[in-house]
C-alpha cells in the first residue's frame, strides 16, 4: 500500500453486516458517477480487471470511469452481496443504461474485491454481459427512486 494511512470503514475482516454496508456504499458511490470521489475508495496502486481491460492506479480508474459514463447514458446500478471472507467480498450486480442511439441495455455481472486492512480496495476483478432490453423491460426506469426496492426475480440472480 502506498501513501499515508487513510481508513475507509468498514474494514476487514468483514462480517455479513459490514460486507453488506461496503457493497451498498459502493453502489451509492457508483450511482453518483463522481469518478474522482469513487477513486478514493481504492488504494493509489489498485489493480483492476474490467471485462477485457486491465488498469492500475487511481488516475487510470478516474479516466476509465469518465470514458464509461460518456458511453453509458442514464446509468443506474444495483449491487448485492454474493459472498465474503476475511478481506474479500464478491458482488453480484445489474445496471441499466442506454447508448447514443437510445437503445437500452442491462448489464449482468460479478465482481471480486480484495481490501487492505484500512478498508481501501486493492484489487477489483469484474466480469459482465450486456443484454439488449426494451424501455418497457427496464427495472430502474422512470419513477424508481430506490433501486434496492426493485424486486429482481430469482432467474436473474
From TrEMBL:
Q: Which SUPFAM superfamilies match?
A: NTF2-like (SSF54427)
InterPro entries linked to this entry: DUF1348, NTF2-like_dom_sf
Stated name of the protein:
DUF1348-domain-containing protein
Q: Organism's domain of life?
A: Eukaryota
Pfam families named among the record's database cross-references:
DUF1348
Amino acid at each position: 500500500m502506498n501513501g499515508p494511512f487513510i481508513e475507509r470503514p468498514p474494514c476487514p475482516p468483514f462480517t455479513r453486516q459490514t460486507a453488506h454496508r461496503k457493497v451498498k456504499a459502493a453502489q451509492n458511490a457508483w450511482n453518483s458517477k463522481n469518478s474522482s470521489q469513487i477513486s478514493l475508495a481504492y488504494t493509489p496502486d489498485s489493480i483492476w480487471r474490467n471485462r477485457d481491460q486491465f488498469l492500475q492506479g487511481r488516475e487510470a480508474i478516474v479516466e476509465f470511469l469518465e470514458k464509461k459514463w460518456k458511453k453509458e447514458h442514464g446509468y443506474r446500478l444495483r449491487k448485492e452481496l454474493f459472498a465474503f471472507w476475511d478481506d474479500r467480498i464478491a458482488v453480484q450486480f445489474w445496471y441499466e443504461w442506454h447508448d447514443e442511439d437510445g437503445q437500452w441495455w442491462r448489464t449482468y455481472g460479478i465482481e471480486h474485491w480484495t481490501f487492505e486492512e484500512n478498508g481501501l480496495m486493492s484489487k477489483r476483478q469484474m466480469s459482465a454481459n450486456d443484454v439488449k432490453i426494451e424501455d418497457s423491460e427496464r427495472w430502474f426506469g422512470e419513477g424508481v427512486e430506490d433501486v434496492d426496492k426493485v424486486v429482481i426475480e430469482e432467474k436473474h440472480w
